[in-house]
Amino acid sequence: KTFGYKRFEILAAAFNGITLLIIAIFIIIEAVKRFAAPPEIATTGMLTISTIGLLVNILVAWIMFRSGDTEDNLNMRGAFLHVIGDMLGSVGAIIAALLIMFFGWSWADPVASIIVALIIMRSGFYVTKDSIQVLMEGTPKNIKVEDIIKTIENVPGIKSIHDLHVWSITSGHNALSCHAVVDTHITIEEGQRILDEVEHQLIHKGINHITIQMESENHDHHGSVLCNHQGLSKKS
Length: 236
Description:
Layout: H1 7-36, H2 43-67, H3 74-103, H4 108-135, H5 145-153, E1 158-170, E2 173-182, H6 188-203, E3 207-215, H7 225-230
């Protein structure tokens, strides 16, 4: 594992997202069944337990929001959304219990369940989608490939680039590799200065693991996937 076990975070986030989707589907199925055959509901117990659950989940959500990166860390976001899903479930159960107690609206229970399930499903979908994007080594959403190309090619000494790949190892840890065409006669010291400048520029754009292969224009460039699709070409 040359990158260590950083991908465990993304695998956990994917598991969280898929679990949220499964839970949401299960809730919707059970809610539909309750429309056809409404069960007898112990509203007092439902209200009491839901209120306790709401207070606990508010506390847990506050702790996670204060102490963890719930925006960029996919694993934390997945766990946070689990808590938010539980919290919304408690809110839905409280509202449903009150409507049944005061108005006798037994349909409020399955309706609240479906609304909460749809909210949970939306959260689960986006966590799963972002996790798959990382696992498939897609370009991070905060990275603009065109901007990266321009940044590298504007460094003095680089004529063009190809075989460019940008991906995430885990949340907040972006990597890049590419081939850079340079003058045939540059020295090792000049090549190092070019690399230092490229790394300096890219670190400020959120890429902290950079691998660049330098080569001359005479080098065989077969199999340049991004070249063919993105139209990267030699600078005029």
